[in-house]
Each structure stands twice: as C-alpha cells, then as structure tokens.
Amino acid sequence: MSFDSDQYTRIMEQLKEGKLGDVASQLDQEVRQGRAVSEEKLKQEQESQYAARASRLAETKLQRLGESDVAVIPYTGDESIDLIRGAILTLAETMYASRKAALDTALAHEMDLTIEFGDPELEIPSSIHLQQETEQAHVALELVRELLSEGTNSRVEANR
Predict the structure, then answer these.
(1) Contact (Cβ atoms closer than 8 angstroms) between residue 95 and residue 140
(2) Is the pTM of this model over 0.85?
(3) Residue 63 above 50 pLDDT?
C-alpha cells in the first residue's frame, strides 16, 4: 500500500471524535516517539537510515551502536497504520474476553448477571447486564475484525 499522508490524521481524528480519545492520544504519542530497534535490526531493516546514522556518528567521532544498544527510529506510514490497527483489534479482543470471563464466572457460581455500580444511598446506581454486554462486545469484535479485514484486502489490491 502506498501510504496516504492524510490517512493517519483522518483515522486519529475519527478515534478522537468517538469514545476512543485516550487510545488515540496514546497511539499518537507512541508514533511520535518512534520505535526502538537494535543495531543489527536497524542494519537489516533500514539500510539507508543505518548508513546516514553511521555517517553522522563518524562525523561527530562517536562510536557506532553496540549489539546490545538500541536506536529510536520513526515509524513509517504503514507501520503507523499497522500500530493503530493492532491497538484497536487488541482493545476489541480484550473488551470481549473480559466480559466473557465475568459472564462465565457469574454463570458458574450462579450469580446475578446484572452488576450495579454506585452507592444506592448516595445516587441512583447504574447497571450493566453481563449477557447483553458480552453479546455487544462480541458484535463489536466481529465488526472490528471485518473492518480490518476489508482494510487488509484494500491494501493487497492497492499493491497489485
């Protein structure tokens, strides 16, 4: 896929406009910080960056990185998008798994499937029904998988 420079920005704006503003902020911070790579991996993956880095180190008379040292390099456009995709999928999987585990535990111990939050003496408690929450989380997970699958198919077609 040829990375569209506005694609990252559009995705981040959509996340911020929805209920995933905190996730968007964390992802944006991760992308801005770059990723840590070992000297060997830098040499293998980013030959041009490695050569430029080696040249800068030589000019300043600094030693090259040792085998156990790491360098921070920026994410490519595609890596940034893959980071977002992975985070959203992990979030959806965790959402479903945690609700499913709570539901399974409640069923196994013959507990009430409705959970109430708040102190009834101080406020009107809010509540969730584990069965409904688990079903909604499963639908959300499948939707995320479907959307990410469509994105992958589009990327494969764009590379052809």
Answers:
(1) yes
(2) no
(3) yes
